[in-house]
Automatic annotation (TrEMBL):
GO biological process, one term: cell division
Similarity comment: Belongs to the ZapG family.
Transmembrane segments: 6-28
Designated name of the protein: Z-ring associated protein G
Keywords from the named record: Cell cycle, Cell division, Cell inner membrane, Cell membrane, Cell shape, Membrane, Transmembrane, Transmembrane helix
Keyword Signal among UniProt keywords: no
Topology with respect to the bilayer: Single-pass membrane protein
Region (Disordered): 111-136
InterPro entries, A to Z: ZapG-like
Domain of life: Bacteria
Phylogenetic classification of the source organism: Bacteria, Pseudomonadati, Pseudomonadota, Gammaproteobacteria, Orbales
Organism: Gilliamella bombicola
Entry's Gene Ontology cellular component terms: plasma membrane
Length: 136
């Protein structure tokens, strides 16, 4: 054998091996199944990333709305505090005095006594458990 022929043989084997491996990987069922599973995995990862972004956007928007609500509530509270003097005189505002003995007298007057214990049932039947005679 000639040296050139041996070189051509080696180059032919290498090219044949490369073409054969590509052909087998494209045609074999395992390779197709692997490619399908890889594609599904990539698609699922993309969906997961999109869902995470959507959730993060939702929570940031919710936080912004709650912040605006808190600001508006503070503004309303300040408005009510500033303008409460216009509608009520300080002299006529009722106050609760917890230290005085007058509260004890009020509690004693409001005691309610029952002559007998109330019943948990009625004398008249409601008809709820009455057998329906028309169902036969």
């Amino acid at each position: 054998m000639d040296k050139d022929m041996l070189t051509y043989l080696v180059i032919g084997l290498i090219i044949g091996f490369i073409i054969g491996s590509i052909f087998i990987s494209v045609i074999s069922p395992k390779a197709r199944k692997y490619a399908k599973v890889k594609q599904e995995l990539d698609q699922t990862k993309d969906e997961l990333i999109a869902q995470k972004q959507m959730i993060a956007k939702h929570f940031s928007h919710s936080a912004e709305i709650l912040d605006n609500m808190a600001k508006e509530f503070r503004r309303l509270y300040q408005h009510m505090a500033e303008n409460s003097n216009q509608f009520m005189d300080r002299e006529n505002v009722p106050t609760l005095d917890f230290d005085s003995d007058s509260n004890e007298n009020l509690v004693e007057k409001k005691e309610i006594t029952f002559d007998k214990q109330p019943r948990d049932y009625s004398d008249n039947p409601s008809g709820l458990f009455k057998a329906d005679e028309n169902k036969s």
